[in-house]
Specification:
The structure holds two protein chains of two kinds.
Chain A lengths: L4 E9 L7 E6 L2 E6 L11 E5 L2 E5 L2 H4 L1 H19 L1
Antiparallel strand pairs in A: 1-2, 1-4, 2-3, 4-5
Chain B lengths: L9 H14 L4 E7 H9 L2 H4 L4 E8 L1 H4 L2 H11 L4 E5 L13 H6 L3 E4 L3 H10 L4 E8 L4 H13 L5 E8 L1 H10 L7 E5 H7 L4 H8 L3 E4 L3 H16 L5 E3 L11 H10 E8 L3 E10 L8 H4 L15 H5 L23 H4 L4 H8 L3 H6 L1
The chains are: A alpha+beta, B alpha/beta.
Bound molecules: iron/sulfur cluster.
The site of iron/sulfur cluster (SF4) has 15 residues of chain B, from helix 15 and helix 16.
Chain lengths: ~80, ~375
């Protein structure tokens, strides 16, 4: 039940911050979620959704870091190999 | 799916695994807190990619599993009453209480309904003014913002027929309880990413320092978990005990402020029993005085119900990482997902169920 997955906001409704709802696209499946806790999330943003609530925005630049880390690791490995 | 599939790339996973093999020189026990991570580890066979020296201990991080027996009994008692619509997340329905479960109560005429979000239960209360709607509010800090908003909305709408049976638990006090146990084998933690998305990870700095354990806030996909393990091993091997954030795409150090504000508004910190572990001080959330009228325990007079847990089930030891699920004598024999003895076999995030589902063969388990 702790599952929380990323989806893309396709539309937003409601003006009161605590009543803001969004339609979220999870790879083709659309679901409603409360945007009460992501006041700055806009259409097109990715959010992590848990039991009908967006808990945080996915930061696209940070999302790249895992792959940058791997790349750096690979380069370091090659360097070390060359040295030995 | 974006932000999901790319973190499941097998080749990249191997790269992480190779690096972990390269740097590991000593045996290390690392606990993943969250049941969602346990599920992913067993499902994707992540532990099998790791060096034999590294043991992943599956922590108490499944709210379904740690909900105490007496709370399930209270739910059963309330759900069986006429005029009550009992709303719950689906995975609570088969959790065994002392004598029965919610599914059986439903089968014998109780109005038990599965909802996806606590807000659905608020809607039920609006649509059924002549009925009492009770929501079973379980979960970690991840779920608390949702239940908090449901209560807040119910108060705004002055819904007199809505209440909640609350069994919310908090992660950092449980980590401390584990670490201060003399049997504790945990040397490093993968902290649960989504708990931290809400609460941030400020609280972990003092734990890391006091107990000298590395804590790495970690996501839920295979590459996240592998990178989390790598970062933890790097710390262990170099004698560091720091808090690091692997899951920076979703977690900021300060967490989600609006969510924390509403949790503070609606809840207060209370002692809480954890199934299999016992009572941990300051480890739960209960309703604040201002919202006491929404407390189902008070409304239905079940607050003083206490029961002891069965001795057959060793889920307490499993939850504390002292045995692996298949080391329980009942595993796969007396206890299966169809006929669970303990909550760790019920929920798909429970360690017992994850082992049963993905590694039914005892030989395979033995081989690891
Ligand atoms: S296998 Fe069943 S009885 Fe044994 S610890 Fe797990 S849930 Fe309890």
């Amino acid at each position: 039940m702790c599952l929380a997955i990323p989806g893309k906001i396709v539309s937003v409704s409601g003006n009161d911050p605590l009543e803001r709802m969004g339609k979220i696209d999870f790879g083709g499946i659309l679901k409603e979620a409360s945007l009460a806790y992501v006041p700055d999330a806009r259409v097109g943003d990715y959010v992590i959704v848990h039991v009908g609530f967006a808990l945080s925005k996915v930061d696209e630049a940070e999302a790249q870091k895992v792959f940058d880390y791997l790349k750096r690791m690979g380069e370091l490995g090659e360097l070390e190999e060359r040295r030995t | 799916m974006k932000f999901l599939d790319e973190y499941r790339d097998g080749e990249l996973a191997q790269q992480f695994a190779r690096e972990i093999h390269r740097i590991t020189t000593k045996p290390w026990n690392i606990m993943e807190i969250c049941g969602g991570q346990t599920h992913a580890i067993v499902k994707f066979g992540i532990d099998e990619l790791l060096p034999k020296k590294i043991t992943l201990i599956h922590g108490p991080g499944c709210p379904v599993c740690v909900t105490p027996l007496e709370m399930i009994d209270k739910a059963l008692e309330i759900a069986a009453r006429p005029n009550v619509i009992f709303a719950s997340f689906g995975d609570m329905l088969r959790v065994p209480g002392s004598t029965t479960d919610l599914l059986s109560v439903k089968a014998s005429g109780g109005d038990v309904r599965i909802v996806y979000s606590p807000l659905d239960a608020v809607k039920l209360a609006e649509q059924n003014p002549a009925k009492e709607i009770v929501f079973f509010g379980v979960g970690f800090e991840t779920t608390a913002p949702a239940t908090a908003l449901a209560i807040y909305q119910a108060a705004q709408k002055k819904l007199r027929n809505f209440s909640m049976l609350i069994s919310h638990v908090l992660v950092p006090p449980a980590m401390e309880a584990l670490l201060s146990s003399p049997n504790c084998r945990v040397q490093g933690f993968l902290a649960a990413g989504h708990v931290c998305a809400v609460m941030g990870y400020e609280e972990y700095f003092s734990i890391a320092k006091k107990y000298r354990v590395p804590i790495v806030v970690t996501g839920f996909e295979p590459l996240d978990i592998l990178q989390g393990v790598l970062m933890t091993v790097q710390q262990l091997e170099s004698g560091r005990a720091e808090v690091e954030n692997q899951y920076s795409r979703a977690v900021r150090r300060e967490g989600n402020q609006p969510a924390q504000d509403l949790i503070q508004e609606v809840f207060r910190v209370v002692p809480r029993k954890w199934r299999g572990v016992g009572e941990i001080p300051q480890s739960g959330l209960g309703l604040g005085d201002k919202y006491a009228e929404f407390d189902a325990e008070k409304k239905f007079g079940v607050a003083h119900h206490h029961v002891e847990e069965s001795a057959d089930c060793q889920s307490g030891l499993v939850l504390q990482g002292q045995i692996k699920p298949h080391e329980c004598p009942a595993f796969g024999a007396k206890c299966t997902p169809e006929h669970p003895l303990g909550a760790t076999m019920v929920s798909s995030e429970g360690a017992c169920a994850a082992y049963y589902r993905y590694r039914r063969m005892p030989d395979l388990i033995g081989a690891k």
